Amino acid sequence: MKIWVDADACPVLVKQILFKAAQRTQVEMTLVANQHIPVPPDKNITSIQVQSGFDVADDYIVEQCVANDLVITADIPLSAEVIAKGAHALNPRGELYTKESIGSILNIRDFMDTMRSSGVHTGGPGAYGNKEKQAFANNLDRLLAQR
């Protein structure tokens, strides 16, 4: 298992959890972003800067990931693509997307997108707090223990 991080919008707290987990478990981890993302000095942790542009980082992750890799992202279409390749997708709030759940999650996302484009204010996710941080850390540990 290798961990891929959609790092452009990944919260700092999540990156810190990931750095510690990668160092503790010696799992290879790559952060992908269209800007420089500093990483701690560790042979298993790398950062790749891709060109700017819509979905360039997402496309890179989809191309590189393989079955049983873990992708950390809040991007639902990216999650669907990596799940189709047999990889796991975990969002920074601790929700594990699965083959069984991703279809309905995509439908809800598309519906909300349509609502927003028609002028309806749908609000956004709540603040990132201890509950979300703990859910993420717990699911990450569970996935790493299964490798």
From TrEMBL:
A Pfam family it matches: DUF188
Family in the record: Belongs to the UPF0178 family.
NCBIfam families associated with the record: PRK00124.1 (NF001095)
Protein's name in the database: UPF0178 protein WNY77_11090
